[in-house]
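Practice problem 4.
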C-alpha cells in the first residue's frame, strides 16, 4: 500500500491504476480468507479514492473490523452489507446493534436490537433481550438525569418499562422498578 500511495503522490494520474490493483489484491485476499490483507488493501484504495465501491466485500470487512474492536469503522460497511443483503439479514442486524452498543450509542443500538427481535423466533431472543434491557435502562437513566421536560420523562418511562417487559438483565430488574418509581414521582 505504501508504494501505491507514494506513486500516486508523485504522479496523481496513477491513482486509478493503483485503486484497480489494490481492489484486485483485496479480492484475492478475500478469496484466500485473509481479512487483514483485504482490509489493508481496501483502506489504501479508499485513501486514494474515497467512496470507491467494495461490492461483496462489505460484510467481510465489517466483520473484520467488528472482531478487531473497531466498531466505528465496521458500521459503514455493515450499512452497505445490509443494503445489499439477500440472506442472513437477522445476523447482520444483530451485529450492527452490537457495534452501536460498543461505541456507546445505545439509542441507535435499540433500533437494531428491536428489529432483530422481531425477525427471530421467541426462543432465539435471550441474548438480544439482554442487550435491549441493558440499553433501554441506560438510556432511560441518562434521560432522567438530564431531563427538563415531560417528553423526556415519558421516553425514559417507556424505556424503563421495556427493560421490565423483556425481564433482562435479571440483575438490574430491581433497579429498573426503582427507576420506574422515581420517574413516576418526577412526573
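Answer key:
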Amino acid at each position: 500500500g505504501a508504494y501505491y500511495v507514494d506513486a500516486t503522490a508523485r504522479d496523481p494520474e496513477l491513482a486509478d491504476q493503483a485503486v484497480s490493483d489494490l481492489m484486485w489484491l483485496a479480492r484475492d485476499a478475500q478469496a484466500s480468507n485473509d481479512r487483514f490483507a483485504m482490509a489493508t488493501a481496501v483502506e489504501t484504495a479508499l485513501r486514494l479514492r474515497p467512496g470507491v465501491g467494495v461490492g461483496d466485500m462489505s460484510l467481510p470487512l465489517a466483520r473484520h473490523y467488528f472482531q478487531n474492536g473497531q466498531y466505528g469503522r465496521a458500521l459503514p460497511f455493515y450499512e452497505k452489507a445490509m443494503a445489499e443483503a439477500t440472506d442472513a439479514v437477522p445476523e447482520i442486524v444483530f451485529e450492527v446493534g452490537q457495534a452501536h452498543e460498543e461505541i456507546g450509542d445505545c439509542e441507535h443500538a435499540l433500533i437494531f436490537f428491536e428489529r432483530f427481535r422481531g425477525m427471530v423466533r421467541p426462543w432465539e431472543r435471550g441474548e438480544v433481550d439482554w442487550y435491549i434491557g441493558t440499553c433501554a435502562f441506560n438510556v432511560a437513566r441518562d434521560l432522567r438525569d438530564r431531563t427538563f421536560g415531560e417528553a423526556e420523562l415519558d421516553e425514559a418511562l417507556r424505556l424503563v418499562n421495556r427493560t421490565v417487559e423483556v425481564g433482562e438483565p435479571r440483575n438490574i430488574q430491581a433497579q429498573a422498578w426503582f427507576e420506574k418509581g422515581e420517574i413516576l414521582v418526577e412526573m
